[in-house]
Design brief:
With 313 residues, this protein is of the alpha+beta class. The chain has two domains: 200 residues, CAP (Pathogenesis-related Protein p14a, 3-Layer(aba) Sandwich), CATH 3.40.33; 97 residues, Immunoglobulin-like. It contains eight helices and 13 strands. A hairpin with a 6-residue loop joins β10 and β11. The N terminus is likely disordered.
Amino acid sequence: MKKNQYAHILLIASFVILFCCSAVSAAQEELNICQSGITAAIVKRINEVRENPWAEAERLGFDVQELREQIGPLAEIWDQGLPPLFCDERLTQAAQGHIHDMLENLYYSHISLDGSGPLERIQAFGVNPLFWVESMGAVVFEDVIAIEEAAGLILDGLLIDAFNGGKEGSPLLDHVLSHIGIGLIGGRLSLNGIDFNVFVLAADMIVPQVKDIASEDVNRNMRVVGGHVYRDLNHNGQYDLGEEVVGVRVVLKGPLGVYGPVDPKWNLVTGSGGWFYQLLPIGNYSISIEGSVSEYDISIQYNVVLNLIDLAI
């Protein structure tokens, strides 16, 4: 597999230049929300990649067969193409606000200086998601660069990270996530007397709460089953952030005894946060991790809209 990186693409693990800079210029480029120029172009580009991840991997120089073997059950989902991400103005405002804060206060992190993280920032805009994640990337140039070129370079860096199994880029290829907000903002900074142009990209992605999904079926006879597959590293018997396992197949059978002697089977594969999510008819189900002898019974009822279950591997 190709493991190249662009020297001027700085992801969160290696981006340190902002910490030692003297100042950010007050002149910041404001971008319109969602439907306009660069934001719409980035979302469109991400969705083109999601439609055919294999073609993008090949373009970036990866061995597609080797990649197919490495991602396991996710390969079947990539074969079908990933569903598009829908741009959300509130998520976009949250992403753009975080970039402004980073450039103005000379830091680069998913955690703001006041201690708030991506969840708190998007909740401040009235979004309370079921699952959430944030990806960030940046590019620094000594000479002026067009914002469109910066977007392409940063996305390439994040996608290389995703195809290498990195946590920063992988959400862009997460089949569970459904909504995205994009910020890409440029500024200037000075390091050792040399001025640099910097563009920072942040992408906030979520699965909405069931009540926020516009569907008559959800209100009438469908309910959501979701949760995490995790490895209980601290042996406390529950899922904790950082314990998620990606690319695991979860098998749901049911509704049990409704459609004859053979129960319907739902094959789900965990996304970049170890999560799975499925809209299902009301009824009784069994759930298990593929290859495991342990099976759990769950009952999806009218009075429970969201059924959460975390599975230890």
